[in-house]
Amino acid sequence: MKKFNFENFLAIKYISSKKEEKLISLSSLLSIISIAIGVGALILVLGIMNGFDKMLESKIIGANPHIIVKNFNGTFNLDNNLIKSIKTDKLVSNVYPSLVEQCIISANGQSSGSILNGVDFNDKPYIEKYIKGNTKGIVLGKELMKAIGVRVGQNVRVTLAYSNPTAIGFSPVSFEIPVTGVFDSGMYEYDLAFSYIPLNILWQKMQTYDLINTIAINLYNPYDINKVGKYLEHILPASYYFVTWAQMNKNFFTALKLEKIAMAIILLLIIIVAAFDIMNSLTMLVMEKVKDIAILVSLGATASNIKRIFIKQGLILGIIGTAFGDFLGLTLGYLLKHYNIVSLPKQVYYITKIPVDITFTYVVIISIVSIGLCTLASLYPASKASKMNVIEVLRQ
Prior knowledge:
By secondary structure, the protein is α+β, with helices and mostly antiparallel strands. The protein is built from 15 helices and 12 strands. It comes from Desulfurella multipotens.
């Protein structure tokens, strides 16, 4: 015959009180609701922030080379042997030289600053998938075209922050060129700042043939940057250095991480408040069940038995509240991810649905922390119940 466990029986029984003890029962219910809301909100908010992080990361990785190689001297001669050496790494998918210059692009009486990238489109650079139209002329960012009011087919004037020596001094390089394509990465800042032009045309206008200032590297897996970085350290000459996409956006990703931690701490306070509600509820219950405890002790229950009854009650409340919270957070996350419940302005975010990415690890950690806090909250009332003077109670 299975042994009857009176500790579990009483822990469950005390959660639902009699009519005369409605206040205690209501307090337990409110504690469960508070835990559920706190856990659900924490799972959902972290899922949304994680979704935004991954979305922005994917856009940043997609619209930028994974690694760029520079020279401390600025511009340098195109070295095909160096490019071939970089390409020998099996993790590298593409390597191509480029000449990056700051410029002002003007049309229709409007001007805007831009970062002009001279690239060889025959090498099929990473940005090719974001370009609509052809690359025979200049390709402007979608937002940059709006800023200066031009369309594909119209001419723009490009004035570089570079001067050519002439008989009477230095003259800034300026030329007209038709817009033949649109760069649309989905990132407002990039679409406003970047423009692209065939490298041979830029060399011709600047009269700097075979001079570049950047070697762009793309990887099959953008997260292999550290492995490729170690390889580059061995093959690059002393005057060269490299920067990865993670280093270029370090401050941005650090800010997002700190924001996620701050939100987690704020929402964790809801669970902590709920844990205090459980402590208050159990303390009131101990005061209410003084005679019951005294009778249990007189029947042979030990202090440890009494203590475990109330610890188990706190644990049960924590498990119930956390389970409801997990269900709430996962359900809302699923609905937001798959249905357009909350619409976002596409012109601001370039997406219409809230990105949600709830990871199993987050759910497990949040659940363990929540149940742990509820169990810790039950230690004080449990200890108080176990140290009760039974003789005094029985005399009354």
